[in-house]
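Standup notes
- DV: blocked on the single-chain target, sequence here:
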Amino acid sequence: MDNKFIMANLLTKLNQFWRIIATAFGFTLFGLGGLLILSMIWFNLLRIFVWNKTKRNIIAQYSISLSFRFFIWIVKSLGVINYQFNGLEKLKHDKHCLVVANHPSLLDFVLLASVMPRCDCMVKESLLKNFFIGGIIKTAGYIPNTEANKMLPYCQQTLASDGRILIFPEGTRSIPGKTIELQRGAANIALRCQADIRIIQIQCNPPMLIKHQKWYDVPPQKPYFNITVTEKIAIADFLSPNEENISVSARRLTRYLTSKLNQE
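- DV (later): unblocked, structure below
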């Protein structure tokens, strides 16, 4: 019995060590492919030859989706993670809407963008100044999370062209075991742009790449991501006929989103 326990523990440690090596390889490949091929070469070509901004954004987003799909295929094949999408067919016809998800891991955006060829995303404004990914964000037309009077026109333009905007309304990655708390940004955008909301729930067990966790701090067991596309909220159910009550509607909608994203 002791020998079996020792052997099982040894195999677990070897598997964990392998996943550290494979994670390093995957992120190196991700960096070289994303930063060198996409940012330095492909996206510069797009800016030169594709002058229509909307068309350029769509091509860039599709390129990002393909590269993410390849990346997660690599890390899954190497045994770093496993994942499953549920209800993915619901996303195929979603247009002029927000896609709202919880945010347990650094890989959440990568997984979701890999299955959404056209996916605008809300990003931190500070990332626009990042030498490595600023060009990617601008070419893809991602929306900076800035003052409402600057941000809303971007959102309205994107939604008017049948786009989807992916938002993680927590504003940062979740802390395992703690109740999810949302900011009101997503609710305000949905109400002011009159856009429906598609809810996605992401579970990662055991936790991986959570807040303040180093990339090499991999769990003893292989993480499993379970991504479920759930209901679509009709924004008309939360719109108030009185424009002055939009803050009240935003609080009510935020509470509803919070209750849904806390359901596991």
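- Follow-up: The helical segments are 2-49, 53-77, 108-114, 134-140, 148-160, 185-193, 246-261.
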